[in-house]
């Protein structure tokens, strides 16, 4: 279980955003792209790099994570949790799928549904969810649960691959533009094995415009930043262009701040 939070005293801790010198940049985006190309044959290197990059982003908006309580929701086999711990955070992994946890999940990993986390209100300084939202049937309820477990003034990091992104169909992209069933059938013909993801079962068509409207209408969070997670330039600008953003953003990153109760 997550230990009781140590008293901080005074007002909730809120650190002003600090410059992140390497994000966005072509060099960073190229490094991530090259890592993604080897996701299947070298997943450790791919996800270790992605974890370092994601925690860099958290610290860019919220300061060092050392000594902070971090809740990683849907973090798979724990790359993100381990990186938070490496930097001194008290990080805990909550993952609903035993298969995703792998053979050696982080210590104290909990099998739990992101719709109903076994945590009290406001326990986390940082609530983190990387590439999970497109895998839940009810994103609004999922976001509500992330907000619930985050303390007032705490940070919520949410990224997801939107459906109309070139990678929206995951392993059967970009053929998802021609229909999900056709794309899955092509994947089976090409690889000889069924695709991991099925639209409407473990992959859902989540869009940037509707997600932004839902988040901005909430009274429990404020939007600090809505940006492309991997884009090498104008990362926030591309998200402001309706229509175009659904294709060009690739992966939406939302940095949210939990409102005072």
UniProtKB/TrEMBL annotation:
**Which EC class, in a word?**
transferase
Q: What is its EC number?
A: 2.1.1.-
What keywords would UniProt list here? Methyltransferase, Transferase
The protein's GO terms of the molecular function aspect are: S-adenosylmethionine-dependent methyltransferase activity
User: What are the Methyltransferase type domain coordinates in residue numbering?
Assistant: 71-158
UniProt xrefs under InterPro entries: Methyltransf_11, SAM-dependent_MTases_sf
Q: Which biological process terms from the Gene Ontology are attached to this UniProt entry?
A: methylation
Q: What is this protein called?
A: Putative methyltransferasec
Q: What is the lineage of its organism?
A: Bacteria, Bacillati, Actinomycetota, Actinomycetes, Kitasatosporales
